[in-house]
């Protein structure tokens, strides 16, 4: 048995929810290791849809322990609201099945406000990033700036005022520069004190908790949010999220050593999408792009924003395989391609007339690259619900094999619909 890390290999929205749910049924512990409530999964279980944006997927399955690691930034009010929403769907969440890292950073109202102020200012200057305005980035800034309020601080209201003062020294200086009114010490203290009793029962020393489970032989599933191309270091900077989304963050964001990570599963859509601003070499702004968006229901789980759609970019996924150390991929939404006469796959780029095999890191260069395509024949038969290779059209199999060859990683799972059982299992990540 091995532990499994699930990461997105593109710009997020690859269909991780279904795959994580499929894996979480067989895991003992499910750990969320980065990001905030700006990304989400939709789980469909027995015909019921559960939309999660902060809680690990394991919470909807009885007998599983869900863990929010120290690499996550937590809006405590959003956390409680999500718990209450699931309770309304009949899912009971208690300290028996959810633990939150004591050293995780909190998102406060002033983070959300700063996020929106900056994004509005950027919209006017043409440098908009496309954030969800939920305070994720500013919270990570405070974490790195060593002035963050953490979950454990809610347990010591006597020392909290000095920490709030330190935080406000920074934020009120920013707000004065932006021409905004200052935030009062009292308002932040009230914001934190009113939620403390709801959050603290879930608090735990997560690195120690996970180490004990590992030593007992528990199967641990590490669940990431967003995708590799949104990584703060390895993504299309500055049009990225504010955390590391790659597999290595599973260790840093949970307190487990990298030797415990095991199988790295890259969730990979059979075409490409992204939300928000930034480069997208294979984007289709034509009828085929509209077809992919409509057939694939390409709208954000959390924000509802329409996703940009394009052909599969093997050069990008090949980069993701390298920086994550991906063992195998779960290829999702193959069925969305049903009915197209031909399919294109990007195998590299031209930059100023020179062929290159990877996306350059420089923003200006990313904006100038031109995709180099190969063309494959499409298929007219339906792949929806296929559960074996024999159920797939020959051209669909050829497409999958071409993807494997181009990205340098095998397909471990193939998803053919949102239903969890409509999956072709090639390699079991927990047994590899």
UniProtKB/TrEMBL annotation:
It catalyses: IMP + L-aspartate + GTP = N(6)-(1,2-dicarboxyethyl)-AMP + GDP + phosphate + 2 H(+). IMP binds at residues 13-16, 38-41, 132, 146, 226, 241, 305. GTP binds at residues 12-18, 40-42, 307, 333-335, 415-417. This is Adenylosuccinate synthetase. The keyword Iron does not apply. The gene is purA. Substrate binds at residues 301-307. It comes from the Bacteria. SMART domains: Adenylsucc_synt. Plays an important role in the de novo pathway of purine nucleotide biosynthesis. Catalyzes the first committed step in the biosynthesis of AMP from IMP. Its main location: cytoplasm. SUPFAM superfamilies: P-loop containing nucleoside triphosphate hydrolases. The keyword Cytoplasm applies. It comes from Xaviernesmea oryzae. GO terms for cellular component: cytoplasm. Binds 1 Mg(2+) ion per subunit. CDD domains: AdSS. Mg(2+) binds at residues 13, 40. It is found in: Cytoplasm. The active site is at residues 13, 41, 143. Homodimer. Its EC number is 6.3.4.4. Keywords: Cytoplasm, GTP-binding, Ligase, Magnesium, Metal-binding, Nucleotide-binding, Purine biosynthesis.
